[in-house]
From TrEMBL:
InterPro entries associated with the record: IF-2B-related, IF-M1Pi, IF_2B-like_C, Initiation_fac_2B_a/b/d, M1Pi_N, NagB/RpiA_transferase-like
Marked site: Transition state stabilizer: C174
Source taxon at top rank: Eukaryota
Protein source organism: Chaetomium fimeti
Name of the protein described by the UniProt record: Methylthioribose-1-phosphate isomerase
Catalytic activity reported: 5-(methylsulfanyl)-alpha-D-ribose 1-phosphate = 5-(methylsulfanyl)-D-ribulose 1-phosphate
Length: 387
């Protein structure tokens, strides 16, 4: 079966799916320089914490492959790589995967430099080390997501004693699937794994205002995968939870993360915090799915997370395809429609922070982390080397 791919990469060539055109049109842009990657990330043609990091890392690999670095020595080549990565770091501030990937790639390039080698050889060794490390990030992300899917499904199965006769319904927010990662997805990966084990009754996805990652991307991906799913607006979640009491509709909320800090506070798409409060009120488990590359042990609590604020037009206007009289979509045209008085003041934070006390489990590729008796998440279990 065909799979959805946000990123198509082979050495020297990077194609990125333009997610602004989804779900109506599948168009890949060639991204060959750091500037093109910066623009692709900033304009949200690619989005989702892991996918952003991968596009930045791989675009620079392509740029280097095409001979953009005119430096001659190993040291100069490292300085070039560092300056390009520092430039890319500013494309979007909240997701930590990008800066974690950048720190790792800088370290790899630095460690590969060998003063004993003649300059052209030293340069070649540094460039090769960079490229191989960027390519490893891509492969590792897919592997991580598959593991997150199985750990998350196993944790939920155990919590609810779910079985094919007693499957579980799950609500998710924003987009965390193949389109936000190298494939499979994080929170959506857990839903995919539950579904493949016949443990999923139904998936609910929120529209995710204002940018509609839920309706444009997650709903599309769920339909594409044939997973039983229903789209709701963000404001319908409370009503859905209330039904849960009577009809066992929702067993868990599963979301992704852009940054999980040392105490477990988690930045994710705006609206996540509200869902966590609702989940707690209704006795529903709240699960964060994130690779360890989304964990930031340098920041103590959510108060230290920089939240990106985006432009007013994302609230006051909407882009859609034109619907023909027969209900079909005209993929050749999009329309930008004003949905508010254009002079109104707007506050548009892209993310919010869910306090750790509202989170039941943080599922990583190395297993599910839960709080100890002291109410604290202990990331030593999954990140002993970084603790
Ligand atoms: O602003 P976006 O579309 O990049 O935000 C994406 C999200 O917030 C995702 O939920 C998050 O990055 C998790 S990605 C697996």
């Amino acid at each position: 079966m065909a799979t959805l791919e946000a990123i198509k990469y082979s050495r020297g060539k990077l194609l990125v799916l333009d997610q602004l055109r989804l779900p109506h049109e599948h168009h890949y842009d060639e991204v060959s320089t750091a500037e093109q990657a910066f623009d692709c990330i900033r304009s949200m043609r690619v989005r989702g914490a892991p996918a952003i990091a991968l596009v930045a890392a791989l675009a620079l690999a392509v740029e280097l492959h095409n001979g953009a670095c005119y430096k001659t020595t190993g040291d100069e080549t490292i300085d070039y790589i560092k300056s390009r990565l520092d430039y890319l770091k500013d494309s979007r501030p909240t997701a930590v995967d990008l800066s974690n990937a950048i720190d790792l790639l800088k370290a790899v390039a630095r460690d590969a430099n060998d003063d004993a080698l003649p300059p052209p050889k030293a340069k070649e060794v540094v460039l090769n080390a960079y490229t191989e490390a960027a390519e490893r990030l891509l492969a590792k992300d897919l592997e991580n997501n598959r593991s997150i899917g199985s750990h998350g499904a196993a944790w939920l199965q155990q919590q609810y004693n779910a079985s094919p006769n007693r499957p579980l319904s799950v609500l998710t927010h924003c987009n965390t699937g193949s389109l936000a990662t190298s494939g499979h997805g994080t929170a959506l990966g857990i839903i995919r794994s539950l579904h493949s084990q016949q443990l999923l009754k139904h998936a609910y996805c929120t529209e995710t205002r204002p940018y509609n990652q839920g309706s444009r991307l997650t709903a599309f991906e769920l339909v594409f995968e044939g997973i039983p799913a229903t789209l709701v607006t963000d404001s319908m979640a409370a009503a859905l939870f209330a039904l849960h009491r009577e009809r066992m509709n929702i067993g868990a909320v599963v979301v992704g993360a852009d940054r999980v800090v040392r105490n477990g506070d988690t930045a994710n798409k705006i609206g996540t915090y509200a869902l966590a409060v609702l989940a707690r009120h209704h006795g529903v488990k709240f699960v964060v799915a994130a690779p360890t590359t989304s964990i930031d042990l340098e920041t103590e609590s959510g108060a230290g997370i920089k939240i990106e604020e985006r432009k007013a037009e994302e609230l006051t206007q909407i882009t859609g395809a034109v619907v023909n009289a027969d209900g079909s979509v005209d993929t050749s045209r999009t329309a930008r429609v004003a949905i508010a008085d254009q002079r109104i003041g707007v506050w548009n934070p892209a993310f919010d922070v869910t306090p750790h006390d509202l989170i039941d489990a943080i599922v990583t590729e190395r297993g599910a982390v839960v709080k100890g008796g002291d109410g604290k998440f202990d990331f030593k279990q999954v990140l002993p080397e970084r603790w």
